[in-house]
Specification:
The chain has about 400 residues and is mainly α. It has 18 helices and no strands. It is globular. The N terminus is likely disordered.
Length: about 400
């Protein structure tokens, strides 16, 4: 895919070998805000339920409706806005988070909070669908994968340290302050974007391919098959890591286990950033191999805590760069229709997270959490087979 020139001296400066760190860090901040906003209620359920005068089950739906908003809005929002210039769209999406998090923080009732979260999820669907394409518009093609890894770094950071910090803040003050902090972060990121991020054009009307036709572009379908398999494999255990640890009698606490996983994920993302532009197929297969090895060690976690920790590390190393690898493959296959392809990616990603929660919950209730690593490995093997088979299109040999 050729690089679409952006306007202004900052954009032209990105044409050299050096990455435009300012704009990429703004986008990393954006991905951090999106993920933090999504996961924040999970650590604040008791406070939210008490503050809104409802049950913890109802409070838990603040996570579900956010995901629902993302799934429902990703494709139509992307199709409707793909002709718009990128920087105003980015700032508009961040402004949406500023408003919806503020409304959630001030919500007088569960209904208002749920409505705000549904709308917040819609803005998440828009931002997830446009970020990767925006990155590729403002950096040289040869550095696109590395730049995307930087822009997506906010995701593992949010999962590793952001969500625990948000839960801690809600515990020592009030859950509303946690959402208020997200509003402040959104406002600061908007200001930074206005100063640092170059604009880029949208897609010309004559070049816009209908979403159904994008699915037929060579390479797109294999990536979209890989996405739900890999994300389901991850989320089926990530959602129920607490029951898994208790089921095997692992002495590690949930917070520490997720921190180990998060730090390993950052390491996996760093490795991906260094090689994805010249060895996409190799790094994707290597990541899935590490993921499968992690699942095997986690399945043996009852033998010793050491095996469980090693499994967490390999799981994180394998998964950390996965989203960047899949988005890079999808963007290279879809070319000018990257934004639409990534909206389909976003839908599959979020549906797989939801499916992981449902499937994992059923397994925990029926067979116990100790079976989760086996299911994790089986789904990851489907993703591995999809990548292995896409040797001519999505993950070509020699790339």
């Amino acid at each position: 895919m050729s690089v679409i020139p952006a306007d202004g001296p900052r954009a032209r400066a990105a044409s050299g070998d050096r990455l435009p760190w300012g704009p990429l860090l703004v986008m990393a901040g954006t991905s951090f805000i999106v993920i933090m906003t999504e996961t924040l209620p999970a650590g604040l359920l008791s406070g939210i339920a008490e503050g809104l005068g409802t049950s913890q089950g109802t409070a838990g739906q603040l996570v579900s409706v956010y995901a629902l908003g993302t799934v429902l809005a990703a494709v139509p929002a992307t199709v409707l806005t793909r002709g718009l210039r990128r920087r105003p769209l980015l700032i508009g999406g961040l402004a949406g988070f500023l408003v919806t998090n503020t409304v959630t923080a001030l919500a007088p009732s569960p209904a208002v909070a749920l409505a705000a979260r549904l709308l917040g999820g819609a803005f998440a669907g828009l931002l997830w669908s446009m970020l990767a394409g925006y990155v590729r518009r403002i950096v040289p093609e040869r550095s696109a994968g590395r730049a995307l890894a930087v822009a997506m770094a906010g995701t593992p950071v949010a999962l590793a340290v952001g969500t625990p910090l948000g839960s801690w803040l809600g515990g020592v003050t009030d859950w509303r302050w946690a959402f208020g902090v997200m509003s402040v972060l959104s406002a600061l990121t908007i200001g930074w974007a206005l100063l640092a991020v170059p604009d880029a054009p949208g897609q010309p009307r004559g070049e816009r391919t209908p979403p159904r036709a994008v699915l037929r572009v060579p390479g797109v379908a294999p990536v979209l098959l890989t996405v739900p398999a890999w994300i389901l494999a991850h989320s089926v255990l990530y959602t129920y890591v607490g029951p898994y640890l208790r089921g095997f009698g692992v002495s590690l606490g949930v917070d520490l286990a997720l921190l180990v996983f998060g730090v390993a994920s950052l390491a996996g993302l760093a490795v991906t950033a260094t090689v994805v532009d010249r060895a996409l197929r190799g790094i994707t297969l290597a990541s899935l191999t590490l993921f499968l090895a992690g699942a095997a060690l986690l399945a043996a976690g009852g033998v010793s805590d050491t095996l469980a920790v090693a499994g967490l590390v390999l799981w994180g190393l394998g998964f950390g760069g996965g989203a960047t690898q899949m988005q890079t493959a999808l963007a290279e296959s879809a070319g000018p229709d990257t934004d639409v392809a990534l909206s389909l990616f976003t839908v599959g990603f979020n549906l797989a997270i939801a499916a992981g929660g449902v499937v994992g919950g059923l397994l925990v209730e029926s067979a116990g959490a100790t079976v989760l690593p086996a299911v994790m490995g089986a789904a990851a093997f489907v993703a591995f087979a999809a990548v292995l088979g896409a040797r001519r299109t999505a993950f070509p040999v020699g790339r």
